[in-house]
Amino acid sequence: MKCAFAGETTIDPTIGAYDASNPAKNLARMNCGATIDLIGPDGRAVVVANKDSSASALLFDDDTLNYPLSEGDATFIVSFPRISVLDRFTFVNENAAAAGEIKIAVSNYRLSANSSRWIEVNGGSSFTGKRLFDLSLLGTEARYVKISFHVTRSGLIAGLGLYGDQSLQKFAARQRGAIRVTNSAATRRLEDMLNFNFANIYARARIVFISSGPKEDAKRMIDDDVITSFRFAPADPHPTVIVELAEHERLHRVSAIYKMEKGRLDVFLLQDLGTNPGNLSGKMPIASVTDTEGGGKAALDFDPSGARYVALRWTPA
């Protein structure tokens, strides 16, 4: 399971003492200054009037937001503010529905999409049948990354990731002041509301309760990598996680990516943990959703409400 919270004690001290998560920050995010362009057949960026339906959704800090890939060829160019060392490229192929091949090329200089000066990183990698795609870019540096899809079966992609030498801790230390100002502003722009994930290590969130599973892996639910995940015990009737936020926050959206199976996700906003954090029987969820298709993701929007702790409880169908 992966968690994301958007918005305006009795704690086990051993949770968080280990780090089996990915410490790297996803550079393919607006909060890192990244931009993305869809390239047309003429090699130029396509201007999209409605930003809410553009490829920019792939750079929001919510891995449940997606972008459609139609059969044929599609090319995107991701631009960074500066040259960055890259280790890995990832994305989510929702329901493993899309099929085809992907090529990655890089440059330290702005080039036209059709230029022969792009440096190819891979000769072509198949993403057919893969829900979570992960490609090594070890030893690569770039300011511009060209992502070329040859799609033989259409589908939806999400959770674009490019990881390198910037850590979550360094990002948090450098950006915290600016982020707090941005999120205190009264705005309804989608790119502002979904550009900061309170349930992330860079936001100083931490896991304070899990109903089952290895504690040393719990951080994987709140790192910045959609490929890493946490596995609850198979016999757990209600897999539950509680995330402590760095401060009391007003939240309006909670999203999660999980194993593709049917079930119900309940979200609780809590002010304190109480003596038995895992007992939510007397609590009223702020929102619930039933996944009847087994799509493996959920996003719940609700009126802004304040909380210091957020609990997610899964009930298998």
What's a quick, concise take on this entry?
This protein has helices spanning 168-184, 190-193; strands spanning 2-6, 24-26, 35-39, 66-69, 72-93, 99-107, 119-120, 125-126, 132-153, 155-167, 206-210, 240-257, 263-270, 287-291, 297-316.
**Architecture of the largest domain, CATH level 2?**
Sandwich
The major beta sheet can be summarized as: 9 strands, antiparallel
Radius of gyration: 20 Å
Classify the fold: give the CATH topology of the largest domain. Answer: Jelly Rolls
* Overall form: elongated
Helix content: under 10%
- Class inferred from helices and paired strands: mainly beta
Give the helix tally.
2
| CATH class category label of the largest domain | Mainly Beta
Domain count, please report it: 2
> How do the helices and strands follow one another from N- to C-terminus?
EEEEEEEEEEHHEEEEE
Number of strands: 15
Mean pLDDT: 85
Which stretches are poorly predicted, pLDDT < 50 over at least 5 residues? 9-21, 177-192
**End-to-end CA span:** 17 Å
How much β-strand is present in the residues?
over 45%
CATH superfamily of the largest domain: Galactose-binding domain-like
